[in-house]
Amino acid sequence: MRGRTKKQASMLAFVNPETLIPSDHPLRTIKRFADAALLELSTLFDEMYAADGQGRASIPPERLLKASLLISLYSVRSERAFCEELTYHLLFRWFLDMDLLEPSFDHSTFSKNRARLLRHRVSREFFDAVVLQADRLHLLSDEHFSVDGTLIEAAASLKSFRPKDEPPPPKRPDGGSPSNRWVDFHGQKRSNATHQSTTDPDARLCRKGPGKEARLSYMGQALMENRHGMLVDFQVTAATGTAERDVVPRLINEARLRGFHPRTLGADKGYDTLECVRTLRAHGVTPHVAQNTTGRRSAVDRRTTIGLGYVASQKVRKRIEEIFGWMKTVGGLRKTRYRGLERVDFAGYLVAAAYNLVRLARLTSIPTLP
């Protein structure tokens, strides 16, 4: 007999979202690790808000951070789109511990609470708590690491890259925005020393390599442990020609503050300079840096390259490109939605935490040999 569509839906239903999510869904493992990391930050969240009974209750900060994870994990294009989807997406509601009757929060909640979260560096604290979860499971290498940098396109047009001493543009006769003008850059010399973006002053004009187009960008700096390819640190800096090498001492020092003991550091040819190699050796780290012998002498000698550890580091360090690929394509970090170095760095730590949670879910689901 042919089934017929019922015109009247049921008026009353008892639904437990927990029973509707498959037991082997990967988001279950991610949720477990994320909740454990957020529990570590409970004291910090108490300091961020007024005492109970004073003022109106806010959206739980745990919910905002987990919502940011979902935006990265499911490549949601914007916070506004996420809030619209949260209205009917059962999986998202289950992940955020929301019942079916609770209304979705407004997208402006993200921007209104971001200043408070930035002030307490919550995204970095959350990232560190996720790293701690992996360390407690003995998944991280304590001595061997890799480093690399990648460009993150800024949320600013090249039209906004104007001379620093240029007066404000006059009003357009058609009533359009004076900042949206037709400009022919051919033959003009533009540099970060003389020009600056009016949209995002922290962005810098940079290109990935010879023959590539220059774009307003930031530089993402990743420190990866070599055992399972998980991020130990991810910092966003200004995009300069030496940014990748300049940040290395800070990454090493902060890794030690987290309890690690770096002995080797793998890197590509961009780090093969005399100053960078000397800095690593001064910090007690063996520079497993790829040799750059194009027209000059490499700063890494045969005493380093002859070892089997050097060969292993050069092989493993390429995993970091896979991390950048995930963060840019899935995590949405190819072009940032935020303006200002502080906000881009905040978003970078959240995307890095999402990547680590995905790695944790995969590693803990692999059966171990007896």
Give a written overview of the molecule:
The protein is 41% helix and 12% strand. The protein has 15 helices and eight strands. The strands form two sheets. Strands 1, 4, 5, 6, 7 and 8 form a six-stranded mixed sheet that branches. It has a two-stranded antiparallel ribbon with strand order 2-3.
Task: Kindly list the characteristics that best describe this protein.
370 residues, alpha/beta, 15 helices, 41% helix
Low-confidence stretches: none
For the report, how would you describe the main beta sheet? 6 strands, mixed
CATH class of the domain at 139-155 and 215-338: Alpha Beta
Using DSSP, what is the number of strands?
A: 8
Query: Which CATH architecture of the domain at 139-155 and 215-338?
Result: 2-Layer Sandwich
Strand content: 5-15%
Return Rg in Å: 24 Å
Instruction: Give, in order, the helices and strands.
Output: HHHHHHHHEEEEEEHHEHEHHHH
* Residues in helix, %: 40-55%
Q: Mean pLDDT, rounded to whole units?
A: 89
The CA-CA distance between the termini, in Å, is 54 Å
Structural class: alpha/beta
Query: Which shape, going by the Cα principal axes?
Result: globular
CATH superfamily grouping of the domain at 139-155 and 215-338: Ribonuclease H-like superfamily/Ribonuclease H
CATH names the topology of the domain at 139-155 and 215-338 as: Nucleotidyltransferase, domain 5
Tell me the number of helical segments per DSSP (H or I, 4 or more residues long): 15
